[in-house]
Amino acid sequence: MSSGGTSPSTASVLGKRVLTLTLGVGFLGGLGIPAAGAGAAATADPQAIVQQQAPSLPSGRTTYRTITDYNDEMLALSARHPGLVKHITLPHKTRQGREVYGIEVTHDVGAADGKPVLLMMGVHHGNEWPSGEHTMEFAYDLIDNDGKDPQVTRLLDKARVVFVPVVNVDGFVINRRTSCGLSPTCASSAGVDINRNYPFGWGSNAGSNATTRGPGPGSEPEVQNVMDLTKNNQVTVLITNHTSGHTVLRPPLEKRAGDTPDEAVYAALTDAITAENGYTGMKSGFDYETTGETPDWSYYATRGLGFTFEIMKTQSTSNTYSEVIEDYTGTGRYEGKSNREAFMAALEYAADPAGHSVITGKAPKGAVLKIAKDFDLWTAPIRQANNVVDPPQRIPTHLQSTLVTPANGKFAWHVNPSVRPAPAYTETGVVATGPGNFIKESWTLTCARPTGEVLETVHVTVDRGEQVDVRLQECKTRFNGNGPKN
Ligand SMILES: [Zn+2]
What we know:
GO molecular function: metallocarboxypeptidase activity; zinc ion binding
Shape: globular
Largest sheet: 8 strands, mixed
Keywords: Hydrolase, Metalloprotease, Protease, Zinc
Strand order of the largest sheet: 1-2-4-3-5-8-6-7
Structural class: alpha/beta
Active site: 310
Cofactor: Zn(2+)
Distance between the termini: 69 Å
CATH topology of the largest domain: Aminopeptidase
Number of strands: 21
Bound molecules: zinc ion
Number of domains: 2
Strand content: 15-25%
Helix content: 25-40%
CATH superfamily of the largest domain: Zn peptidases
Mean pLDDT: 89
Low-confidence stretches: 1-44, 48-52
CATH architecture of the largest domain: 3-Layer(aba) Sandwich
């Protein structure tokens, strides 16, 4: 293992970010663990020793996975680590009827414990194989280093990481960018670019057309899977991996939408991430303009910070696995700049209460707490060929998460702020909103018996970095059967 990553000169790509060097040192120490572990069973054969010293992914893989590999590995990981890894089946099958799988990773993974969530995905575009590899390797990295690497162990105490390495399974199995869309035969002309199908701002004429964006906003089951995950978890950071170009992209997708209300926070986290992987951080619309991508929808729906990572410099999927390894581990042509450490920086932020909100309180043991929000988002006006403009469509949006009160009755629920960014796409069209422009909404918090009977409802208004304590005295009294009958 080279020590090049510890050299101060490695900060030169972003010279102002010298502070991140401490993470670089930790990375080199941490990476030695899986690399050595993977080769531990090898014989004393000199060739085997050479292989141990070569840069290695956490899983030790050297070739691209098939969909069977992904699915089998996720099942095996959950079977091998029952308290740490939970296998999930997403609610919607693909257009071709395939299941979409993922895993969740955290300590005591089966508990509804109110931890903040990092959601990491790959392969929205079916021909972007490296995006699934990096997603899967980061899962191995966390799982194999739990209990060994102090940073990983600490973060798995504080946060939950949800992995969906292959979102567009139909496109992946035929090595095509688009999904199958409505074509029963998966005809290429009918394929939907599911990264143009998210409903927020959907239909704008930037970077998509009536076929590739799909028949309606959020019409595709693959997109609905990601939306359901995001709406039903407190996803404080979202990373959707794509290829290629070494960029880390944040909203807006279209320049006319303007900066997000959280631009300063978004830019700071972008800087922390790109200091690690050496990528170029930018607003997505300044690369090329589109609408209907994942991070704009997820940010304006939840205020969690969503990013598109364009990993690799090579788009091709053949003969590029050495670059997959070097990009992840920060070796070879990417010496000292690793995507692994960029993911860790994102996870650090996802876990940090300063970056989201916390609702604390006491409730009866076993009481089921829910927080929910309802509001509308809007698509973009669509200018048709005859210059007729179709008006924006309303997108009713319901967020809901659940926590089960632990035995000691105390809970600390890490959530996204209830205060919502003012969206640029509205009922009347596109209006740039800009920094600091928020809508003061509340979470509706209910305290219920496990049977679902709601005993108390309160409203909680909380902004980024804030903590609010709630008293659920009525729920406590009624839960224990001493309250007024009704
Ligand atoms: Zn892509």
